[in-house]
Structures are given as C-alpha cells and as structure tokens.
Design a protein that fits this description.
By secondary structure, the protein is of the alpha+beta class. The chain has helices spanning about 1-15, 20-25, and strands at about 35-40, 50-60, 60-70, 70-75, 75-80, 85-90, 95-105, 105-115, 115-125. A nine-stranded antiparallel beta sheet has the order 4-3-2-1-9-8-7-6-5, with no helix packed on it. The longest helix is centred in the N-terminal third of the chain and has 15 residues, at about 1-15.
C-alpha cells in the first residue's frame, strides 16, 4: 500500500507539472506537517472514528500524539519525509496500529493498518481561533 501512495503522489505531480523545477516546488518543508490535525477514519470502532493528531518537533525529533475520547496516545517510530508522515501507536497497550499519511496543503489523507484491517483517513489542519 505504501508503494501505491508513492505512485499516486508521483502520478499527481506528473499530471499537473512536468518540469523538474515544478517537482521540487511540490515538496513541502517538514515544518508544514507540524500542527493540529482533526481527522476521521473509516471502518473502525466508534471510539476511534474521529481524533486529533498533534505533530510537533523538539530539536531534531518529531513527536506525534493522537487524542481520542478515551485519552491521548503517544506514537512511536515517527518518520517525516517531505509530505509523508509514518508512525505507529499502541492502542490500549495491545493493538499496534501503523499510520501512513500525506499532507496536501491543509489536508491530510492516508490509511492506518492493524490486525483488524485497514482504514482510510481524511483530515484537515486546525487553526487557532482568533
């Protein structure tokens, strides 16, 4: 599935922009993934259908936490490369869930994988209220 996401990203770039310079513009800075993201997942149990991702950076280390109605989970194995975010989380200390996400402006899309199957994820960046 990760290969499909990589292929999808490359196809989208090639469909809209054909020069090498345009491809370089497509890449976003790692700082663009930082922030608060509200998201929804498909095909999961009701407590996990909606959540909030907190992505931060402390020196050279990225931290990801997920807030669900039952609590906040700290994520492990965080990798951020350009517009892609990969991490794992242990739900209730037992079920390991892997996330593969892509940032497209102020949207986040991707999938999660667990022993129960995969789930689609769609979300949006949350901005501070003024």
């Amino acid at each position: 599935m990760i290969q499909i996401l990589y292929a999808y990203s490359a196809i989208n770039v090639l469909n809209f922009e054909s020069t090498n310079d345009a491809f370089q513009d497509r890449r976003i800075s790692k700082g663009a993934v930082l922030g608060v993201w509200k998201y929804a997942m498909s095909d999961v149990e009701s407590p996990y259908e909606k959540g909030i991702l907190f992505i931060s950076k402390n020196e050279n280390i990225y931290d990801v936490a997920i807030k669900y109605p039952e609590g906040i989970y700290t994520c492990q194995d965080v990798i951020i490369e350009n517009d892609r975010i990969n991490f794992n989380v242990n739900i209730a200390g037992l079920d390991r869930v892997s996330f593969v996400l892509m940032v497209e402006g102020d949207r986040i899309i991707g999938e999660s994988y667990s022993h129960a199957g995969s789930s689609r994820i769609l979300g949006a960046r949350q901005f501070p209220v003024r």
